[in-house]
Amino acid sequence: MMPHNTPIYPTILCGGSGTRLWPLSRDLYPKQFADTGMGGNLFKDTLRRASFLCSADGVLVICNQEHAFYVDEGLSACNIPGQIILEPMPRNTAPAVALAAMAALEQTEGGKALLLVMPSDHAIEDIEVFAKGVNQAASLAQAGYIATFGIVPTGPESGFGYIKQGEALGEAGYLIARFTEKPAPAQAAAMLAEGGYLWNSGMFLLDASLYLEELKSYAPDIHARCCEAWGARREDGRFIQPDREKFLSSPAVSIDYAVMEHTKRAAVCPLNACWQDMGSWEAFYQSGDKDSGGNVCIGDVMLDNSDNCYLHAYHRLVTAIDIKNMVVVETKDSVLITPRSSVQKVAAIVRKLKDAQRPECREHPLVHRPWGNYESLDTGPHFQVKRITVKPGGQLSLQKHHHRA
């Protein structure tokens, strides 16, 4: 619980598809819901972190409507109440946060609500440090600022955006002087040598009403389309569906571009936590437990004379001899092999798979449903073999056709 009266609504963004984490992540089974092999999944970890930190009753989750069941199952498994806002298609973070702000304001008395906006694919080990940062950011939000969290850099990482600290706002944080998109390695090193730069985490704590006011000022098209979509929404239990056509007419813009780079109320709260954006296989390597050779091995893996590699076996034995600084990921239907220095290029392979209309980029062999799951074992002309697992008490329809035995 936070030591102030304004409720904090944890707002979890689940819109990403995670193309850089193929073959673990697929369009219909993105990385935040997939089994990471490290004892859970990123979405449930985010839910537990949110429930520990926040004072509102329940969470707000924004996700693609194709992933509604995964979110619903996660909330139930973690025993956390919440509302699920279903996007017909992702429109980036500015419209998503606008819908969450409208939902939070309808649940509060007096029109005051703070949103703790968190992507669903981050890992934060030191929850106490994060909790302290949330308190600092809450003081900034209540003072009329839109606060983002800046991670204290541990090195010249070129895969993140950067925030330059401006004028100090007491002990809580700083005005934002400027944003820098992902820099080249030499530029990142120069910024760290200069000092006063933080990694842009993509996490925010903001007053819902203030955000909507600033969005209306700097991105009126997004504000208008989201208001129209929210006004014509349909609700079914904890699922909320904004009007499809009105929502898709909104520009697809990030909160940084739509608001933070224009508003005079942008602030940053430094966060010196053990934080990792789990957006690439290199992030999984950096956060994994390493053996004496610097290798991270998950699953049934056997190595000989190999160093500083990430090897992940999901279904069968993976062996490697005389390899250095490589990533090998095996799933039931696909294998990825790449140097660690090239993991950012995995998205290019996914684009090629999509161009070739290969199902491996969209579908996962294991498909979850509300009643359980099914796994494709074999497919050929005029036949399919599946293993179907039904949860206790689960129900599914009886199907038959001429090729079904």
Structural key phrases:
single chain; 405 residues; alpha/beta; Spore Coat Polysaccharide Biosynthesis Protein SpsA, Chain A; globular
Descriptive notes:
By secondary structure, the chain is α/β, with parallel strands linked by helices. The protein is 28% helix and 30% strand. The protein has eleven helices and 22 strands. The strands form five sheets. A five-stranded mixed barrel has the order 6-9-7-8-12. A four-stranded mixed sheet has the order 14-16-18-19, with helices on one face. It has a three-stranded antiparallel sheet with strand order 20-21-22, with no helix packed on it. Helix 1 (42-53) crosses helix 2 (68-78), helix 3 (93-107) packs across helix 7 (220-231) and helix 6 crosses helix 7. The longest helix is centred in the N-terminal third of the chain and has 16 residues, at 127-142. The chain is globular. It starts with 7 loop residues before the first strand and ends in a 15-residue tail after the last strand. The mean pLDDT is 88.
Q: What structural class do helix, strand and pairing data support? A: alpha/beta
Annotated CATH homologous superfamily of the largest domain: Spore Coat Polysaccharide Biosynthesis Protein SpsA, Chain A
Which shape, going by the Cα principal axes? globular
Give the end-to-end Cα distance, rounded to a whole number of Å.
Answer: 56 Å
Please describe the biggest sheet, giving its number of strands, its sense, and whether it closes into a barrel.
5 strands, mixed, barrel
What's the number of structural domains? Answer: 3
* CATH topology title of the largest domain: Spore Coat Polysaccharide Biosynthesis Protein SpsA, Chain A
Supply the CATH architecture of the largest domain. Answer: Alpha-Beta Complex
Helicity range of the residues?
A: 25-40%
Question: Could you name the CATH class of the largest domain?
Answer: Alpha Beta
Which runs of at least 5 residues are low in confidence (pLDDT < 50)?
A: none
Radius of gyration over C-alpha positions, nearest whole angstrom: 22 Å
Please tally the β strands and state the result.
22
Kindly report the average pLDDT value.
88
Put simply, the count of helices is 11
Order of strands, widest sheet: 6-9-7-8-12
Proportion of beta-strand residues: 25-35%
